[in-house]
Structures are given as C-alpha cells and as structure tokens.
Design goal:
3 domains, alpha+beta, globular, 12 helices, Serine Threonine Protein Phosphatase 5, Tetratricopeptide repeat, 3-stranded mixed β-sheet
C-alpha cells in the first residue's frame, strides 16, 4: 500500500475521532440527578435495584433522587398487599404509579410480619420468617432476609445454613453473596469474604453497593492494621482499594437513606490518604444532598479543618 493511502487513512481516523469524541465523552460522564415519584399505597416500602429508598407517605407518594445509569427495577411492598415489581428505563422521570393488590397468601403475610418485627423483636421476626418458609418451601427472599437477621445477631452458623438453603433456590443472588461476605468477614475469614463480595458484584453486573461497602470497610481495616505495623506501602495500597469501593458504593446508593454514612466513610478514607481536596469535594456533596442531616455541622467543621491543612502545606 502507498504512503498516500496511509496518510489519507490517518486523516479519516482523525476526522472520525473529532466527530464522535463529544458523544463518547458525554456517555462517559456521570449521569445527572433525576427525580422519580413513586405512587402506591400509603406506608409502602420502595426499593430500586434492591436498594431501599424509603416508604411512601400518607398520600402514597415517595419522591426519589437517583443517578443510576442503568435499567431500574422498582419493587414496592405494603402490609396486606402482594409485592409488586416494575422495570423501567434509566431515563424515566416524573410520576410512576405502581398499584398493589390485596393478598391472603399465608407465606407473604408471615414474611411481612417478620419484616415488621425485624427492628423490634428479633425472636418474633425469626419465628415469622420460619413460618413464611413453612408456608412456602420455595421462598428465597425469606431465606435471604432470615440470613441477614441472623448475621446481624452474630448467629453465623444459623445464618450460614440459610445462605446454603437460599443458594439452592437462587444460585446467583447478589444480595445473598453480599450477606455471605459479611458473615465471613465477621467470622474472621477475610480472604473468603473478599471472594464472596466480589462474587456479589459480578452477580449484580457491577451493581452491589452492600458488597462494595463491605470491601471498602475490609480494606480500610487492613490499611489501619498494616499502618500501625509500619508497612506504609501496604497501607497506601489498602486505602486506595478502600476508596475505590466506597466511591462505587456512594455512587450506587445515591439518594438512598444509607448513602450519608458511606459518603462520610469515603471522606474519611480520602483524609487518611491525605487526598484533602477529594475529601472536601465528598463532604461538600454531602452537604448539598443532606443539608438537614444531624451530621451537617460536623461535616462543615471537617471542611474548615481540611482547608486549613491545605493552606499549611502551601
């Protein structure tokens, strides 16, 4: 082939790059915040991609801020009603009506009772979950919820049994793998926990904020441990991994009740890395998103202190 051909080909490739670069850059940008209002029964719990975003008010409405750039699965549950799930495009905004129908299903009603008791009486909640499983043998959601309840009570052996039972019914369940990671981490099996958390992320095709948070906390703990022992290279490595996963978790939890805690953890890790400007940016985002938070005053003081540290370094 001639030199002229290669020259013209190069100009053509450059032209294509100039044409499509703006579109590619736009697609790589963080998606803009969108507002979605769920309309259903009063006091109905709402999940988006398995992240709980809150409950509807007395008027049956819940306004949600989201940034997820993926197809959304909305799940709504209210006492006495059959749970409903609806998939929508990631670009959907405005109002979304999700009607619920009354249920007399014994398993579902027992499951709802367990969910009510979970924050009030753990023993009653466990009994209700088991009643749900007795009423419906193939009920992986009840196995998963019971595993979570038992893990939070540090009954790891019982939690493990429910994880195995649920795995037989739902082999590739991201939430289940994330719970398994928590159980393994709390049992001192950190390497196995890392495997479980990474499996959860893979099963969720990258989306699993609980697993990302679990990995972030695990690596943060490791960084603190090796740092205390004087291994500063390993400390830097683990803090970088912690920041990576906490950043993913914060982005994926955006707008949910769990997001503020993860935002603060991410800011703390950036501080440990001496990435003060990144920490300030995280804290300023926190104040924009949660101006009425009880932690807002403390976060403002963090920003003041970090700006002073930057000035002292200059």
């Amino acid at each position: 082939m001639s030199i002229e051909f290669f020259a013209s080909s190069s100009r053509f490739v450059l032209l294509l790059a100039l044409i499509f670069a703006p579109a590619l850059a736009a697609s790589a940008q963080v998606p803009a915040e969108r507002r979605l209002t769920i309309i259903s029964e009063p006091d109905a719990a709402v999940w988006i991609n398995d992240v709980r975003f809150g409950t509807t008010g007395d008027d049956g409405r819940l306004e949600i801020r989201i940034k997820q750039a993926r197809r959304l699965t909305i799940r709504v549950r209210a006492d006495g009603f059959k749970e409903a799930t609806q998939a929508i495009l990631a670009t959907r905004t405005g109002e979304l009506k999700i009607p619920l129908t009354k249920t007399t299903d014994a398993a579902e009603l027992a499951f709802q009772e367990a969910e009510r008791q979970a924050t009030q009486d753990r023993e009653k909640a466990e009994a209700a979950y088991r009643q749900a499983l007795k009423a419906r043998a193939n009920y992986p959601a009840a196995n998963v919820a019971l595993a979570r309840l038992l893990s939070e009570a540090r009954e790891y052996e019982k939690a493990g049994a429910q994880i195995k039972a649920a795995r037989r019914l739902a082999p590739a369940n991201p939430e289940l793998s994330a719970i398994e990671g928590r159980v393994l981490k709390e049992s001192g099996r950190e390497d196995d926990a890392i495997v479980a958390f990474n499996r959860a992320i893979k099963e969720g095709t990258g989306f699993q904020p609980e697993a990302h948070t679990g990995l972030g906390l695990l690596y943060k703990d490791r960084a603190e441990l090796v740092g205390a022992e004087g291994d500063f290279a390993a400390e830097d490595k683990y803090y970088a991994l912690a920041a990576k996963h906490l950043k993913e978790a914060a982005d994926q939890l955006y707008g949910s009740p769990d997001a503020p805690v993860v935002h603060q953890l991410l800011g703390l890790v950036y501080e440990k890395q001496r990435e003060y400007r990144k920490a300030i940016a995280v804290y300023e985002d926190f104040l924009k998103l949660y101006p009425d938070s009880i932690e807002a005053t403390a976060v403002r003081s963090f920003i003041v202190q970090l700006k002073k540290q930057i000035e002292d370094q200059q």
